[in-house]
């Protein structure tokens, strides 16, 4: 069972959860630096964690010393551990490393005239380190980290001006890293504005009291679509041969029963994902999304040139995260529900779940790969997939510590098999795979460290306390072997 030659095996991270160094190297505040962990609420209630009020932001800014509640500011301290971490990735044989550039490390306030040289130098160092080991960087331009100033001063993505600020940032990083980075993603989980208006869009709900918030979100989305198309253009112009992808939260939906009403419900639900990729791959709004704007009375302001830009600069490939599948039904009364990284969904009686209720479904990954490839016929890239778990270090018998994470190995094994089947049986063109997260980092939904995904354990707790030492888990050696044999050992 060998994967195609040149298959890009690797791992994924994002600055807002991994980098730390939040107030070092001249970095400005980003939305994530104010995103508070919720220690006392139900951590499976995803939606509750992604709202923020103006008062909460104010508090976070006035109390920068209050670190306990903001573990994202520390991340895994990649800022000081990048050499060690990249060496660990190299030891596993990574071909690719997905990371993001913190916009507020380059343009501290988002609207500055000049970039921050120290920030630019940091990523130069990171990319040089990757190069040393022959690891290809895959860079997300924006992963839940717009500069806070853009939020406070302009309402971030709701404002057209943010398109220009973003393009300036993109031009700066493409110019600077043109010889170092070939693979780029524009917006992480571009569909996520609807679920996390603040972290993704920089939208604070209480500022839009007199507006239809759905309209605010889609207006902001429209600006991101235009920005994404322009970023693709800029990247292609500055870096010939570069590849730019969109990034979706992909999950597979099943109808709970074969009742036509449930199947229709499933189809509608799938469109809530496809509307984002349809727009970025075909370069135009799909009819069903335009119909939704009309039927919901949403007046989305689009300039004429916006649609031309979107049409002219579609993405080169489609990347996505995949963690789980869900069921949908027209009538949900009396059915068990489960939480996920998108919305509350109907529990599938045939599937096991993670400790956070995310339903584990490797076949669903194959279904997603096939659906996407059949729909778009463009190369695919799985840029997030993994299992969050609570873990403890145990002695490894050699004077150090480890985690015996067989559950990660089982999870990956089943998902790799599904990928292999999609490639070989279904003819899907899959460029590569980056697990989330290759090294433990702070969870997006819980804003805590204790939801661990990595092949490498990071000694830090939910309060940002610890040595930040790295320990190889059992899965580290297992993944290394998978990469070494290009999947043949599976
Ligand atoms: C995706 C995000 C990531 C990551 C992942 C796991 O939605 O792109 O940033 O966090 O989900 O989610 P969580 O950290 O909530 O377990």
Characteristic terms for this protein:
binds 6-O-phosphono-beta-D-galactopyranose, eight-stranded parallel beta barrel, 16 strands, two-stranded parallel ribbon
Task: Explain what you see.
The protein is of the alpha/beta class and 490 residues long. The chain has a single domain (8-484), classed as TIM Barrel, CATH 3.20.20.80. It contains 15 helices and 16 strands. The protein has helices spanning 15-18, 54-62, 78-92, 103-106, 117-132, 148-154, 161-176, 197-201, 213-238, 260-282, 287-295, 304-312, 362-376, 406-424, 474-484; strands spanning 8-12, 96-100, 136-142, 183-187, 243-249, 252-255, 317-321, 325-328, 337-338, 345-346, 380-384, 394-395, 401-402, 430-436, 456-458, 470-472. The strands form five sheets. It has an eight-stranded parallel beta barrel with strand order 1-2-3-4-5-7-11-14, surrounded by four helices. A hairpin with a 5-residue loop joins strand 12 (394-395) and strand 13. The protein starts with 7 loop residues before the first strand and ends in a 6-residue tail after the last helix. The model has no long low-confidence stretch (mean pLDDT 94). The structure holds 6-O-phosphono-beta-D-galactopyranose.
């Amino acid at each position: 069972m060998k994967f195609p030659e040149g298959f890009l095996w690797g791992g994924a991270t994002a600055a807002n959860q991994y980098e730390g160094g939040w107030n070092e190297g001249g970095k400005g505040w980003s939305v994530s630096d104010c995103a508070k962990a919720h220690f006392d609420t139900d951590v499976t209630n995803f939606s509750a964690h992604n709202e923020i009020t103006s008062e909460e932001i104010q508090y976070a800014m006035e109390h920068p010393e209050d670190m306990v509640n903001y573990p994202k500011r520390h991340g895994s301290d990649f800022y000081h551990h990048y050499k060690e971490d990249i060496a660990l990735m190299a030891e596993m044989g990574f071909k690719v490393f997905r990371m993001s550039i913190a916009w507020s490390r380059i343009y501290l306030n988002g609207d500055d005239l000049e970039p921050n040289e120290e920030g630019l130098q940091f990523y130069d160092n990171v990319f040089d380190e990757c190069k040393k080991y022959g690891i290809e960087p895959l860079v997300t331009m924006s992963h839940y980290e717009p500069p806070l100033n853009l939020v406070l001063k302009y309402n971030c993505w709701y404002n057209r001006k943010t398109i220009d600020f973003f393009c300036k940032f993109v031009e700066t990083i493409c110019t600077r890293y043109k010889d170092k980075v070939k693979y780029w993603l524009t917006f992480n989980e571009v569909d996520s504005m609807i679920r996390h208006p603040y972290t993704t869009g920089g939208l604070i709900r209480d500022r839009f009291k007199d507006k239809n918030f759905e309209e605010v979100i889609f207006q902001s989305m429209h600006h991101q679509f235009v920005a994404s198309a322009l970023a693709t253009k800029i990247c292609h112009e500055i870096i010939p041969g570069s590849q730019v992808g969109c990034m979706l939260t992909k999950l597979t939906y099943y109808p709970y029963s074969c009742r036509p009403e449930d199947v229709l419900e499933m189809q509608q639900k799938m469109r809530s994902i496809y509307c984002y990729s349809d727009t970025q791959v075909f370069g135009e709004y799909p009819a069903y999304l335009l119909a939704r704007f009309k039927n919901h009375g949403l007046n989305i302001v689009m300039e004429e040139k916006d649609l031309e830009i979107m049409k002219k600069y579609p993405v080169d490939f489609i990347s996505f995260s995949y963690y789980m599948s869900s069921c949908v039904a027209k009538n949900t009364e009396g059915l068990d529900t489960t939480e996920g990284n998108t919305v509350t969904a109907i529990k599938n009686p045939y599937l096991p779940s993670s400790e956070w209720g995310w339903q584990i479904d490797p076949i669903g990954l194959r279904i997603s790969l096939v659906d996407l490839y059949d729909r778009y016929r463009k190369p695919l890239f799985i840029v997030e997939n993994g299992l969050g778990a609570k873990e403890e270090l145990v002695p490894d018998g050699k004077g150090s510590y480890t985690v015996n994470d067989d559950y990660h190995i089982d999870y990956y094994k089943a998902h790799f098999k599904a990928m292999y089947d999609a490639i070989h049986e279904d003819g899907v063109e899959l460029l590569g795979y980056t697990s989330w997260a290759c090294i433990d980092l702070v969870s997006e939904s819980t804003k805590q460290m204790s939801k661990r995904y990595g092949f490498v354990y990071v000694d830090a707790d939910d309060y940002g306390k610890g040595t930040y030492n790295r320990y190889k888990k059992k899965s580290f050696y297992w993944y290394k072997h998978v990469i070494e044999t290009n999947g043949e050992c599976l």
